[in-house]
Amino acid sequence: MPIEVKLCGLNTPEAMDAAVAAGADMIGLNFYPPSPRAVTTEEGARLAQRAGGRVRKAGLLVNPDDELLIRVTQSVPLDLLQLHGALPPERVAEIRARFGLPVMLALPIAREEDFEAVAPFEPVADRFLFDAKPPKTMKDALPGGNAVSFDWQLLAGRSFRRPWMLAGGLTTDNVAQAVEISGAKAVDTASGVEEAPGKKSVEKIKAFVAAARAL
Fold first, then answer.
1. In the chain, N or C terminus with fewer CB closer than 10 Å?
2. Which residues does 151 contact at the CB level (< 8 Å), separation at least 6?
3. 96, containing H or E segment
4. CB 10, CB 200: distance < 8 Å
5. How many domains does the chain have?
6. What's the domain range around 134?
7. pLDDT by residue (tens digit) across 92-121?
8. Is the pTM of this model over 0.85?
9. Is residue 28 a contact partner of residue 60, using CB atoms and an 8 Å limit?
10. Dihedral pair phi/psi, residue 109, rounded to 5°
11. DSSP labels, 154-178
12. What's the rounded Cα separation, in Å, for the pair 168 and 192?
């Protein structure tokens, strides 16, 4: 079964076209303004419409309130909500029920104990995104897309009630090793296909998707 590939933080027509042409399964539109990859709802709508039905579209939101969720979901044709931040299970369940979209919950991982956070969310999330927890010393760390990896061995042999996706510092050069060690069936990258923060490389997009597809 082929590895599922998601490219996150696409913010230009060129990057979107490259992701679709390369055969990505899913793309992420970032609606978190502090991120260099962030798009407005208007920009996100145009990019989503450009992709059409050729790829699934996730909307990345950090601790979103209902006002933001309404604005994004009414403007942008999304297939999935990707939630980051300090959201309790009750809030995740509420968002999922009210907005009628599957939810992928991002959980930051740095050590084995971090997986204890999974169980309370298994009844309310449709899938998980395991991303690297940024070091406490990292200045201006984002909820994701920090080009930081965690120890993939922490995932080896683990099973969950929901499907999961691996993120955190994945590049063309290390995605094969990451999949082999972790057992991931799906991978996500943002910084790994960039020339600079927020600036996607068409060539790196093509290379990453090809590398993941070869596994």
1. N
2. none
3. helix 89-99
4. yes
5. 1
6. 4-213
7. 999 999 999 999 999 999 999 999 999 999
8. yes
9. yes
10. -125, 135
11. GGTT---SS-EEE-SS--TTTHHHH
12. 9
